[in-house]
Amino acid sequence: MDTRARYPSGWFWIGFSADLVAGEPPKPLRYFEQDLIVYRGQSGRLVVLDAHCPHLGAHLGHGGSVRGDDVQCPFHGWRWGPDGANVLIPYDDRVIPKRKLRSWRVIEHHGIVLVWYDPTGAEPWFEPDPIPELDSPDFHPLGDYCVSTWRSRRVSPVNPIENVCDPAHLKYVHGAGSVPTVAEFGGDGHRFRSVLEYQFGEGRASTWLTPNGPVLGQLDANASGPGVMVTRYRGIHDTVQVFGVTPVEGELSDVWSAIVPRRAEGEAPGELGPVTGRLVKHFNGQFEADFPIWENMLLVDHPPFARIEAKPFHAVRRWLDQFYVDLVPVS
After folding, report:
1. Average pLDDT estimate for 151-168
2. What's residue 232's pLDDT?
3. Residue from 120, 321, 129 nearest 244 by CA
4. 329 falls in which pLDDT band (50, 70, 90)?
5. 290: left (phi over 0), alpha (psi -120 to 50) or beta
6. Burial code of 142-169, b = ≥16 C-beta within 10 A, e = fewer?
7. Which class for 226: exposed (0-12), middle (13-18), buried (19 or more C-beta within 10 A)?
8. Sheet strands side by side (includes 70-72)
9. Which of 33, 34, 68, 241 is 20 to 30 A removed from 14 (C-alpha atoms)?
10. Sequence-distant contacts of 132-139: CB under 8 A, at least 24 apart
11. Is 134 in contact with 49 (CB distance < 8 Å)?
12. Hey, which residues does 232 pair with through a beta bridge?
């Protein structure tokens, strides 16, 4: 019997800081087969709670309101604090301390909202690594121009992480001139890093990206657990992609991506010029090219790896195993 949890533990992307305004009604979410709400209290505090009022089950994300840092049920006006505790029953002088909503660990990470998930309820054991480019004036800020989201029927957190250890697919899926070299790979605690080296514009005298001929570049991918991946493209115009896959239920997931280029000379923040605009479009297209593969593939437990890919694939699979909790104690 397979006792491994369906979804891995880790920090997972559920939204953007800019979309959560203090005092606005709670937003309904569904992740990890559970109904949730997210809101920003009037103090600025960000809160994620289970969605259904413990009183009579109303969904707090459909008609609920924010009062201070609490959320008020639309059905009978009961209020619940950021920790999930009952703080007010408007037609009684007592509260019911034994009934609580689950309060989820949530952080804002460079403008990205991340929630902690663990199938056993364990507390976070790591923090996601900094992404200094997202706070740097040298790079464009997060904004609609660079953000994409997809609801996908069969993409899991495993797919994009294994991708960065798969040099051959860059040739056959993404059009690289040859199979890249895996220059570095390995896991250390909650971190996994893979560096692929290849020629941008290989075999062509000039392209819009490499007008002076081919350039040796790097795809430097860094995962902070299974839910947050940062890929830095070096050798051309510096560009950072932050992405993650958040399970919804079953095989359904939300895929999040932000492609943030370095500002070219004369560009105002968030106003892309011809090169940076084309870069965002290009890398979005490259990311989307993986979806037909991911959504129709099967996970092969013991693949017959070629020599060039065997060590990186084995390393990333061993690293991923630590995030999949065994739900049945080993006797």
Report:
1. 92
2. 97
3. 129
4. low
5. alpha
6. bbebbbbeeebeebbbbbbbbbbbbbeb
7. buried
8. 65-67, 70-72, 79-80, 86-88
9. 68
10. 133/232, 133/240, 133/260, 133/262, 134/110, 134/240, 134/242, 134/260, 135/110, 137/263, 137/269, 138/262, 138/263, 139/238, 139/240, 139/260, 139/261, 139/262, 139/263
11. no
12. 220, 240
DSSP H helix total and E strand total for the chain: 5, 18
pLDDT, position 4: 84
Kindly give the pairing relationship between strand 112-117 and strand 34-40: unpaired
Q: In order of start, what are the domains of the chain with their CATH numbers?
A: 10-117 (2.102.10.10), 132-321 (3.90.380.10)
Coil vs helix vs strand at 53 = coil
Q: Are 99 and 54 in contact (CB under 8 A)?
A: yes
Q: Are the C-beta atoms of residues 187 and 209 closer than 8 Å to each other? A: no
DSSP symbol at 249: E
User: How far, in Å, CA of 276 to CA of 175, rounded?
Assistant: 20
SS3 category, 254? strand
Whole-Å CA distances, 26 to 36, 53, 62, 67, 107: 10, 13, 8, 11, 17
Report whether pLDDT(166) > 90.
Answer: yes
Give the residue, 121 or 299, on which the prediction is more confident.
121
Q: Are 268 and 224 in contact (CB under 8 A)?
A: no
pLDDT surpassing 60 at residue 330: no
Cα angle 264, 269, 273 (rounded to 5 degrees) comes to 45
